[in-house]
C-alpha cells in the first residue's frame, strides 16, 4: 500500500502484497506505531544527522545544454576512485585456478533482438570525463540516462526530450558517479552525484512524474569522501552504500524528500562482521525493490561477497544484513547471515592495470572485480521473494565470467540459496560489468560487456525462464552493440552498468559503455523481454492525489495514474474508487489509452480524509472485460 503519515504530513511508502496490478491501494494513517521484534543481534545507527534542503530547481528541459567536447580520452578528465592497489592477497583459495560452475551446457532458447536500441551519451556530450559510469532508469513514458557528468532524457523510442545537460551544474556542484533511479512507489525520479569539495552527496527528487520538470535538491555531507555511491528504492527509505571510511551504509528519509520537506534524516550504520575487499573499491549493495509488492514490515537488505582469498575469510560466501528502519523510534542493523556459495575467485589484476585484454593494444580495461555489480534487485511473488545479484569471477587464465545468484525467502524469513551459476561461453572472451534483474514471472535477465584480445568490448545479454534447469542461462547470447574501437590510453572502463525494469514488469532496459571509435566512448541503451505482452491489460499504478503532504480535507480530489500494459488500445472502461472496503464511485475512462502508454484519471467523486487520527484505506482499480 501507498502510505501517508498524517502525523508528520509526509508520505512514507509501504505496500502489502496484492498480486493484482489492476488494483492500487492508498492508506491514509493518523498515527503509526511500529513495535520491533528482533531475531538476530542488532546494532543501532552510529550516526544520525540531517540533510539540507537546497531548494527547487528550474525545469531540467529549460537548463542550458553542454558545449561539445571535441577531444578523446587522451584529453579527458579522469574521475578519481578511492581504492588500494594491492597484489593478489593469497594463493591458497579453493578457487584460484578455475570456476567450478562455469556453464558448459549450451543455450537452447532464442532471446530475441532488442526492442529499442539507441545511443545514450557520448564523451563529446559529457564534458570530457572518463570513465562514463553509465546509469539510467526507465519510467512509464521516459528513459533518463546519465554519465560523468551529463544527463539526457529520452522518450521510450529514443526521441530526445532534454539535454545533454551538465548534471553537476544543474544540481549545484556535483562532480561524478551519477545514479539515476525511477521510484515506482511514488512515480518520481531520483538522481545523485557526489560533491568532492564537501565530501557530500547531492540528491534530486523530481517534483512530478515528468523527469524533464523540476527537482527538490538535498545536500548530505558525510564524514569522508563518498566514492562509488549506490542507491536503492525501499518502502521506508532510500538506502545508500558508499566506498568510504567509517560507516558505509545509510538510510535517507525518503518521505520527507519526496514532499520537498526540510531536514530529512540520514542514519549511518556499521556492517558488523564484514571483511573488506583489500584490492579495490568496497561496494556492498542495497536491495532495490522491483514492482510494487512486498511483505509487511520488510527490512532493508545489504549484500556483499566474501572471497576466501581475503584475509579473515575462510570460505567463499555472501553476507546479508537486515536494516530495521523506523524514523520515529529506533532503527538497527543486524549481524549478517552467511550464504555459502560454490568456490570463486574474484581477483584479476591489481587495480590500475586493467583486467580485460583488447585487440591491437597492450592496454587492458577494467572489469571492476571484487564487487557486487549494480543493481541488487529484489522482487516479491505471492509465495516467495527473490533476490538476484552478480559479480565477476575468474574462470581460468584470468578471464572473467559472471557468477549470478538467486536467493529466496518467504515473508521476512531467512534467505537461502535457490540457484547459482557462472555465465561464460568457451570462446576465450571475458564477460564482465554485468547487471541483472527479474521479471513478473521470475525470469532472470543478465546484460554485460564482452571483450578479449580478439574481441572489442561489446554489450550483450542472456537470460533464463523461471522453469529452466537451475544454475543455467538458457537464452542465446544476443548482441546489443559491438565496438568498432578500443581504448589504448587508460584502463578506466565502466565503472558500472545498470539494468532497470519497465513498469510493465516484463521489459528489461540496460545501459552500458562501448567504443564506436578508438579512444572514444559512448553509452548504449537497449530494451528486451522474454515473455509476450497480453492483449487486454490495464491497471492503476499510482495516485497523483491526494499528494505527498497534508493536511487532508473533507473533499479530497482523487486522481490516479493509469497504464496500458497490453498491446490493444483500450477505452470506455470503468474504474472503481473504494474507501475502507466500500465502493464510493464507479466512473468511466472515456479516452483512448494506447498499448504501452499512460494517462491520468480524476474522479468526479471526492472523499473525506479529514478526521484527525483516523486511518483510511483508499483503493482504485480498473474493471476491463478480458483482463
Task: Please provide a brief summary of the model.
2% of the residues lie in helices and 45% in strands.
Structure characteristics:
627 residues; ten-stranded mixed beta sheet; six-stranded mixed beta sheet; 3 helices
The low-confidence parts are 1-21, 29-39
Q: Note the gap between the termini.
A: 22 Å
Tally of extended strands? 45
Biggest β-sheet description: 10 strands, mixed
User: What is the typical, i.e. mean, pLDDT?
Assistant: 90
**Could you say which structural class the secondary elements and strand pairing correspond to?**
mainly beta
Which range best describes the helical content: under 10%, 10-25%, 25-40%, 40-55%, 55-70% or over 70%? under 10%
- Percent strand equals over 45%
Cα shape = globular
What is the alpha-carbon Rg in Å?
A: 23 Å
Q: How many helix segments?
A: 3
Amino acid at each position: 500500500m501507498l502510505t501517508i503519515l498524517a502525523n508528520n504530513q509526509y508520505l512514507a511508502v509501504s505496500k502489502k502484497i496484492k498480486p493484482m496490478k489492476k488494483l492500487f491501494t492508498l492508506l491514509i494513517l493518523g498515527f503509526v506505531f511500529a513495535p520491533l521484534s528482533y531475531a538476530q543481534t542488532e546494532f543501532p545507527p552510529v550516526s544520525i544527522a540531517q540533510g539540507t534542503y537546497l531548494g527547487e530547481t528550474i525545469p531540467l528541459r529549460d537548463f542550458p545544454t553542454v558545449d561539445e567536447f571535441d577531444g578523446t580520452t587522451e584529453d579527458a578528465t579522469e574521475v578519481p576512485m578511492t581504492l588500494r592497489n594491492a597484489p593478489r592477497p593469497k594463493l591458497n583459495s579453493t578457487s584460484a585456478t578455475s570456476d567450478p560452475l562455469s556453464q558448459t551446457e549450451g543455450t537452447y532458447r532464442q532471446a530475441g533482438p532488442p526492442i529499442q536500441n539507441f545511443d545514450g551519451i557520448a564523451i563529446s556530450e559529457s564534458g570530457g570525463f572518463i570513465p562514463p559510469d553509465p546509469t539510467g532508469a526507465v519510467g512509464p513514458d521516459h528513459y533518463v540516462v546519465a554519465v560523468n557528468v551529463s544527463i539526457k532524457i529520452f522518450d521510450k523510442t529514443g526521441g530526445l526530450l532534454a539535454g545533454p545537460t551538465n548534471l553537476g551544474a544543474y544540481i549545484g556542484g556535483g562532480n561524478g558517479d551519477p545514479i539515476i533511479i525511477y521510484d515506482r512507489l511514488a512515480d518520481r525520479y531520483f538522481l545523485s552525484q557526489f560533491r568532492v569539495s564537501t565530501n557530500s552527496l547531492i540528491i534530486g527528487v523530481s517534483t512530478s512524474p515528468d523527469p524533464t520538470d523540476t527537482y527538490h535538491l538535498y545536500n548530505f555531507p558525510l564524514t569522508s569522501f563518498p566514492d562509488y555511491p549506490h542507491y536503492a528504492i525501499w518502502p521506508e527509505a532510500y538506502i545508500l552504500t558508499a566506498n568510504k571510511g567509517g560507516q558505509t551504509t545509510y538510510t535517507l528519509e525518503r518521505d520527507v524528500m519526496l514532499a520537498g520537506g526540510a531536514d530529512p534524516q540520514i542514519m549511518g550504520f556499521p556492517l558488523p562482521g564484514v571483511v573488506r575487499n583489500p584490492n579495490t573499491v568496497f561496494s556492498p549493495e542495497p536491495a532495490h525493490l522491483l514492482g510494487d509488492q512486498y511483505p509487511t514490515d520488510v527490512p532493508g537488505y545489504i549484500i556483499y561477497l566474501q572471497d576466501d582469498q581475503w584475509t579473515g575469510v575462510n570460505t567463499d560466501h555472501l553476507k546479508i544484513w537486515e536494516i530495521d528502519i523506523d524514523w520515529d523510534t529506533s532503527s538497527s542493523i543486524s549481524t549478517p547471515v552467511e550464504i555459502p556459495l560454490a568456490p570463486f575467485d574474484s581477483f584479476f589484476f591489481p587495480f590500475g592495470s586493467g583486467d580485460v585484454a583488447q585487440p591491437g593494444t597492450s592496454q587492458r580495461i577494467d572489469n571492476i572485480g571484487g564487487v557486487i555489480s549494480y543493481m541488487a534487485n529484489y522482487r516479491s511473488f505471492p509465495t516467495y521473494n527473490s533476490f538476484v545479484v552478480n559479480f565477476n569471477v575468474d574462470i581460468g587464465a584470468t578471464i572473467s565470467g559472471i557468477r549470478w545468484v538467486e536467493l529466496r525467502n518467504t515473508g521476512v524469513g531467512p534467505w537461502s540459496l535457490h540457484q547459482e551459476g557462472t555465465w561464460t561461453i568457451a570462446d576465450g572472451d571475458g564477460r564482465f560489468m554485468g547487471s541483472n534483474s527479474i521479471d513478473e514471472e521470475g525470469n532472470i535477465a543478465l546484460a554485460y560487456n564482452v571483450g578479449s584480445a580478439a574481441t572489442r568490448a561489446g554489450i550483450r545479454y542472456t537470460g533464463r525462464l523461471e522453469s529452466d534447469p537451475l544454475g543455467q542461462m538458457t537464452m542465446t547470447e544476443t548482441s546489443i552493440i559491438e565496438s568498432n574501437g578500443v581504448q589504448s590510453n587508460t584502463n578506466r572502463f565502466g565503472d558500472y552498468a545498470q539494468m532497470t525494469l519497465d513498469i510493465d514488469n516484463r521489459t528489461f532496459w540496460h545501459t552500458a559503455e562501448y567504443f564506436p571509435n578508438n579512444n572514444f566512448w559512448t553509452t548504449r541503451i537497449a530494451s528486451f523481454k522474454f515473455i509476450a505482452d497480453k492483449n487486454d491489460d490495464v491497471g492503476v499504478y499510482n495516485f497523483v492525489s491526494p499528494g505527498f503532504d497534508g493536511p487532508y480535507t473533507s473533499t479530497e480530489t482523487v486522481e490516479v495514474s493509469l497504464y496500458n500494459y497490453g498491446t490493444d488500445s483500450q477505452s470506455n472502461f470503468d474504474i472503481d474508487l473504494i474507501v475502507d472496503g466500500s465502493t464510493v464511485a464507479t466512473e468511466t475512462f472515456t479516452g483512448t489509452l494506447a498499448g504501452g502508454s499512460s494517462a491520468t484519471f480524476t474522479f468526479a467523486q471526492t472523499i473525506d480524509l479529514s478526521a484527525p487520527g483516523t486511518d483510511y484505506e483508499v483503493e482504485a482499480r480498473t474493471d476491463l472485460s478480458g483482463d
